Amino acid sequence: MTAGPVPGRWRKLALLGGGMVVDNTEAGMVTGLFPVIRQSLGLSLDALGILTAASKIVGVFTAPAWVWAANRWSRKGVLAFATGLWGIWGIAAGFSQDFVQLLIFYTILAAGNAAAAPIITEIIGDLFADNTRGKAVGLLYGGIALFTSVIGPLKGQLAGVDDGWRWGMWGIGAFNMLLGAAIWIWFDDPGVGASERQLADIDRATRAKHSQLTWAKTVALLRIPTFLILLGSRLLSGHLLVLAFGVVFLVDVYGFSTEVASIVLLPAGIGVFVGNLLSGPLSAWAQRHSPRNGLVAVLQAAQFAFAGAALVGTQFDWGSIWLFGAFFGLMALVQGLNPGINRPMVMAVTPPGDARRGLRPLRLDLRGDRVGGLQPGRRIPERGAWPQDRVPPRAGRPDGGQRPVPDPPLSDVRQGRRADAERARRQAGAGPARRMIR
Questions:
Q1: Which sequence ranges are marked TM in the entry (predicted)?
Q2: Model's pTM, two decimal places?
């Protein structure tokens, strides 16, 4: 017996995509506008690593709780609450007066947004059958990337507005609440296993009971070697870190303004969009030519291509923001290949009833990529690990400038030199020096 197409599945996919957009936009709001947040609240670069890591760490704990609540009561209700009413914490974050308040409100906000990815991924599996699931995933992530590519540079322009980052947080919080209302009014849950032909002759209640997560099923998933390797590869892959800290990196290391540096988000978003669209046909081609090794080879090639683009694109001063944007677009393109490759790999090595459940730890582990943000928050602006010259203490220090100063990071040295040059220009009557778009 075969299961027919779920009615209204593409409309429901578009509505669910809004939940994923909120998650991505909120994460990008802090990373993209951190230079002005840092100036507004008097923060150090370490604060970005703490904010990013805290939001992902809390997601590791709250995402399973949201999934449990969704399976226990209502997936629709949990999504409407976690991506709707929870938006009030985004509005509260916009009123933060210091780092502690921002950290608390932003972390609480992230705790709610953690519900979107695992629940929506599970619902997509219920909306689409095997032959259309890859296309649906590619269109979902591609649409999100396209939206991000448009909103990213626009969001960066908030840096030129007084307290622009606050308006951004208020806006995304309000959007959160509107989206929750839309999900509650217009979304209908298809039910667990609605698109799986193996479960087509089973009623909805029995399908839901069959799909309940148990310790035995969890242990069985962890005994699949391919699945474990995919989990480990997420921790070792740094592409999310590079794109998360990209704008701050360009501001601190190469002297671009936040508005100019945010331009790289446009080609990056387009690159992810193109990569998502290509991932489906590329995945199908790889499986046809080598059912056993095709997907693995494509995934490995994408990882190596990203490493090469990141090395060349970040470790050399290309001068023009458009050249930096080209490299960020290339990095994003190969990153965009991942969803259409690793998700079919998970579905191929797990039983039909467990395939979507197998994607949950993959999503949680993906958040683990961001946990590494605690240390990269300190280290990304340093291009390389070569020895650094000792910088003498500046006049006017409280200790009289007599205490030895530890070796500063290269970014601090460059910032100090730029500040000195700026003061010299102003004393000479010259206008402020800004790195322009070119």
A1: 47-70, 77-97, 103-124, 136-155, 167-187, 227-251, 263-282, 294-313, 319-337
A2: 0.61
